[in-house]
Design goal:
Layout lengths: L18 H10 L5 H5 L5 E4 L14 E15 L5 E8 L4 E7 L13 E10 L3 E4 L2 E5 L1 H7 L3 E4 L8 H15 L9 H6 L5 H9 L4 H30 L14 H7 L6 H14 L6 E6 L5 H14 L3 E5 L3 H17 L4 E4 L5 H13 L4 E4 L13 E7 L6 H8 L6 E6 L5 H7 L4 E5 L9 E7 L3 H13 L3 E5 L14 H11 L5 E4 L5 H12 L5 E4 L12 E7 L6 H8 L9 E7 L5 H12 L3 H12 L1 H5 L18 H17 L9 H10 L10
Parallel strand pairs: 4-6, 9-14, 9-15, 10-12, 10-13, 11-12, 13-14, 16-21, 17-19, 17-20, 18-19, 20-21
Antiparallel strand pairs: 1-8, 2-3, 2-5, 3-4, 5-6, 5-7
Length: 690
């Protein structure tokens, strides 16, 4: 028997035919070891036993064809975009294949090459396939595809489909026997799952599509099961922790309700009851507060922090950016002064002398409420008596950062605020270790927000409209994707937009804010804008969250295609906080691919953050909308939270059932599970952190 020199943990550079240089291409698709390569799940499969001829293709068909390139053309569009066109022919017919705004394909295709394309057939001056998956293949490879099921892997420049297939074949031949089962026989039988080594073989070398789908099902179940198992273990551990009992005494909280210039909504009252019921219990609260933009989460968090203070404990609120921490501090300062509460702000920008004074107040307990960024978790920061930790926009923090702040106290209560709406089924799954409250209704008497896509040739009309709004005493935001002009990105920067806006709105005062400004400058600019000393504020996404200017009724967003739906919704949430009608204009100054325009058009017609979040997950996957490292859990690389929902709930039931049956998994039945769990969670102490 031939001796194998490869192991599962061997770097891919040692696979025959790869080497150090080519291994860098694999690294771009997150493949660094043999094990990574074996567990690389194809994006899709193409069944060549049902290969289509071009002449048979009909409009709206999802099809895969192989043909010869007869012509290649690259065209510029009037909006500075680019179209790469290929005329593809088999022995019977031809079809146009087009890619929009793919500069990397400009010199990719040559006449005479054999090309595999897979996509939807549409019609524009004839049949065409737009932005398809493609692969340039040799004549020998054309012959190999006939009558087989071919996996289509994620690719990168310099790495072709057949490069991956050859490497996978070598690794499977040499190392597949080393892959160990991760699930007990009882779960395999219960859920009709194939053994893991067989699943990997069928994943890459399926005899038919059914084998391929069954293999993927096994790997998706694995991913979901261990994801949920960690949540189940967290919840089990949290039940046995001893915390602090913090009853709502009404000393400060009732006074808060008296000084607020508005009444709480029914939803806020219900959520506050959820939280105070948790805080009075002698175990740590672990609760997620989900709320759409402008739903009033900050007031709820303040109420909870005051419960802690009136019981003689400190409260801490950690925000992901300095501007958000500053806005919380500045925005609540007047209310806290009325309540005679000592509050401090701690960020990295605070100068040495002031920082020393703030740290001293935190350590002595004089600082009753502490606002800050990740600066709060630095080793020198000591709390006197920490009762509750509030983390705002928690998906931007890693689990280590959240753990570090919670560990500043002795099992303090923990409240997560999330203004990135997540559909309920997904939230219950991803945050199964937390109790969840949903805050959907917004405070009454809020003005309607109208959103409109504006083409470049209509921009001057909008500027005239904005002048009319400013003349009424209202204010405007202008959002840009960049601070400075970039040679690589053809996008408008803050500097460019400032000069454009200043030349048109010369009778109005204009401010600029972005992340590179000093903390003192940012606070002054925001205070000036809030005090109506500035009419227009040009900004990057530093104003995405936490900025509350009721008088602002206009938002202009340059290059909205550069932002995700959730981020656009957050930006739009900066207006519509007063009683007047507000307007959000999306400036498009270039051609957009159909799928990109569809996303922007969906945003134009929808104001519901939960619906937009659902759409964002469908379009971009959960990783981007939720933050890839937010949970301290294994990444979801394979499963789709929507398409694989039934498998997700099945895995969740099995995982929570396992922990209910045997919390410590001491039974020999769960030996394989426990072994795999150790690999996924090397820091067991973090399991109790939301």
């Amino acid at each position: 028997m031939k001796k194998s020199y490869l192991k599962l943990n061997s770097p891919v550079q040692y696979i025959k035919g790869i080497g150090p240089r080519r291994s860098t291409y694999f690294k771009k698709i997150s493949i660094e070891t043999v094990n990574d390569l074996l567990f690389l799940v194809p994006r899709r499969y193409v069944d060549y036993s049902a290969m289509r001829q071009i002449s048979d293709l009909k409009i709206n068909d999802e099809a895969t064809v192989i043909g010869k390139i007869k012509a290649v053309d690259v065209q510029r569009t009037k909006h500075r975009g680019q179209i790469v066109k290929v005329l593809l022919a088999d022995e019977f017919d031809t079809i146009a294949v087009k890619w929009f705004n793919r500069r990397d394909l400009k010199n990719r295709f040559k006449t005479g090459d054999s090309l595999l394309v897979s996509g939807k057939v549409t019609f524009f001056h004839g049949r065409q396939i737009v932005n398809p998956i493609y692969e340039i293949i040799t004549e020998q490879e054309v012959d190999k595809t006939q009558g087989t099921v071919i996996p289509i892997y994620p690719l990168t420049e310099g790495l072709g489909l057949w490069d991956i297939k050859r490497a996978v074949r070598i690794c499977a031949d040499e190392c597949l026997d080393d892959v160990q089962e991760t699930l007990p026989e009882s779960l395999l039988r219960k859920n009709d799952l194939m053994a893991l080594p067989q699943a990997i073989r069928n994943l890459h070398f399926p005899g038919n599509l059914q084998d391929a789908f069954a293999a993927r099902r096994r790997l998706v179940y694995d991913e979901f099961f261990f994801f949920e198992l960690i949540l189940a273990k967290r919840r089990s551990m949290a039940k046995h922790e001893t915390g602090i009992s913090l009853p709502d005494q009404g000393v400060l909280t009732h006074r808060l309700l008296d000084v607020l210039p508005f009444e709480l909504t029914k939803g806020q009252v219900e959520v506050i009851k959820n939280i105070t019921d948790d805080m009075v219990k002698p175990r740590p609260m672990n609760r997620l507060l989900q709320g759409d933009v402008g739903a009033g989460k900050t007031v709820v968090a303040l109420y909870a922090m005051l419960v802690s203070v009136e019981n003689g404990y400190q409260s801490a609120l950690m925000a992901p950016t300095e501007i958000l921490a500053e806005q919380h501090f500045v925005g609540l300062s007047e209310t806290l002064k009325e309540l005679k509460i000592e509050a401090v702000l701690l960020t990295s920008s605070i100068k040495a002398d002031a920082r020393k004074q703030v740290i001293g107040k935190i350590a002595s307990g004089d600082a009753q409420i502490v606002f800050g960024t990740h600066a709060l978790i630095e080793e020198e920061i000591k709390f006197n008596k920490l009762g509750i930790v509030v983390v705002d926009e928690q998906h931007r923090f890693g689990v280590m950062q959240r753990a570090a702040l919670v560990n500043k106290g002795i099992n303090p209560d923990f409240l997560v605020l999330s203004a990135t709406p997540i559909p309920r089924t997904i939230a219950l799954t991803l945050y199964g270790d937390l109790d969840i409250s949903f805050l959907r209704d917004k405070p009454p008497r809020r003005g309607e927000v109208l959103t409109k896509i504006i083409k470049e040739n209509k921009k001057q009309d909008i500027y005239s409209f904005v002048k009319n709004e400013l003349a009424k005493g209202h204010q405007a935001f202008v959002i840009c994707p960049l601070i400075e002009k970039s040679e690589k990105l053809d996008l408008k920067s803050v500097d460019e937009v400032y000069h454009e806006i200043a030349s048109i709105f010369c009778d109005y005062s204009i401010g600029v804010i972005h992340g590179r400004l000093k903390s003192t400058e940012r606070i002054k600019i925001m205070n000036d804008f809030r005090a109506k000393q500035l009419d227009i504020l040009i900004a990057t996404t530093v104003v995405e969250v936490g900025v509350d200017i009721p008088n602002a009724s206009i938002m202009l967003i340059e290059h909205p295609e550069r932002f995700g739906l959730a981020q656009l919704h957050q930006l739009r949430g900066r207006i519509g906080r007063g009683t007047q009608r507000s307007y959000c204009f999306l400036f498009l100054n270039r051609y957009l691919a159909p799928e990109t325009y569809e996303r922007i058009a969906y945003f134009e017609k929808n104001n519901d953050g939960f619906a937009l979040a659902q759409k964002d997950i469908e379009l971009r996957g959960p990783g981007e909308i939720l933050g890839k490292k937010q949970h301290g859990l294994p990444d979801l690389k394979i499963g789709d939270l929507e398409d694989d929902k039934e498998l997700l709930f099945l895995a969740r039931d099995d995982a929570f059932g396992t922990i209910t049956k045997d919390p410590e998994m001491k039974s020999s039945e769960f030996f394989t599970i426990k072994k795999q769990l150790r690999k996924l969670t090397p820091k067991e102490k973090l399991l109790s952190i939301g």
